[in-house]
Amino acid sequence: MFDRPDFGDSALLVHIDIQHGSHKSEFPVDVQASRDEFVELANSAGLEVVDLLVGSRSRPDSRHFIGKGKLEELRFLLKQHEVDVVLFGQRLSPSQERNLESELKVRVLDRAALILDIFAQRARTFEGKLQVELAQLTHLSTRLVRGWTHLERQKGGIGLRGPGEMQLETDRRLLNERVKMLKQRLSKVRKQREQGRSQRTKSGIATVALVGYTNAGKSTLFNRMTLEKVYAADQLFATLDPTLRRLTLAGGTAAVLADTVGFISDLPHQLVEAFLSTLTETREAQLLLHVIDVSDDLKDQRIADVDEVLGSIGADAVPQLIVYNKIDRTSFEARIDRTDTGEPIAVWVSAVTGDGIELLLDAVTERVSKHRTIGWLKLTPAQGKIRAQLFNASAVLEERTENDGGSLLHVDMDTIDFAKMEREHEISDQFTPDSPKLAASGRA
Length: 444
Prior knowledge:
Blueprint: E1 10-18, H1 31-44, E2 48-57, H2 68-80, E3 85-88, H3 94-104, E4 107-109, H4 111-122, H5 126-141, H6 167-202, E5 206-212, H7 218-226, E6 243-248, E7 254-259, H8 269-274, H9 276-283, E8 287-293, H10 299-312, E9 320-325, E10 335-338, E11 344-348, H11 357-369, E12 372-379, H12 384-392, E13 396-401, E14 407-414, H13 415-425, E15 431-433, H14 436-441
Parallel strand pairs: 1-2, 1-3, 3-4, 5-7, 5-8, 8-9, 9-11
Antiparallel strand pairs: 6-7, 10-11, 12-14, 12-15, 13-14
Helix pairs in contact: 1-4, 4-5, 5-6
């Protein structure tokens, strides 16, 4: 075996369009757009793309993925350019990667490994780093034989390996032990997240999660809505670690806005599995803001890709509010689209210019308030226990002291929880609900 170089800065890209015969998809693959996205992925990884080899096949070659002719073209290009790695825009089997490296004498990676590398660069939090390492090791476990064939002979070792254990077996055992340890650590982090979600649920605070295809403008929109300054860039997977911030809606209604990792077509299943604890914020949310780049010609395909990932993590049943972003690049104007019953279903905005953001906040307020009871509750001085219960649940938006020593509370609670309190304390005649329009506009 040759010595494989470390992952470098220059790359030769190979993108082969696999034509699946008579199979017809609802969204035919745009080959050029797929190639452009592949190049953008390489650029997002910080690589210098020196050349792009393209082609098409009816099905992949079992040994090298590409045919003999393309393999010779690839050899010729490698003689022309000094590159550190060859990247394939499709998934390669472990044997295909191994055979290509043996033929080309350069490191070969597929699209899944490229995405994993981008995630490894972007991870900042302890949880994010654990998740990325778990995904990388899971991906590596099927490719462990690559590069170790020269060590596949029996060896003995004191305290390191059993009698006759091969180097490959040792590496596989150590890898499995590391994977087990990472899963244990992530389990602890998951419990901490569950505690946070449980506390928000008890407080009646709704979670609103931003989802969408990568580079749809979610982080820029997050900054506009929360007046924060989280990292946002015009590149794929600019956001990896989830960010949660308190969002005060019209009428004083509180919510938590979560900015999540962007999705992409053919997302490696190792990432979906490793990031389940992070994606749980999406699955447990009361409302999803599905952000769509309205200027993207492939937006219908992007929507389908996002919905597919949401289905794979069990979040397809969470209500969605569509957010058509980047109207500044089009002739569209800011507006709210509603159903026949008046419920907001889509908002047209520009996160860059801020156009339509107030409309979006109003639409979110209406959707979040749909299953909440908001209004004024008048309590007597003897009903201090109810007052304390409301404050403990973080359900009081405003309090006014009456002349008789009682309290007038502006409350915001989950409808089911408030109904239980009404039955328990018989206070239905003391409550005056806000009208839906007043609640959404913030007027008492």
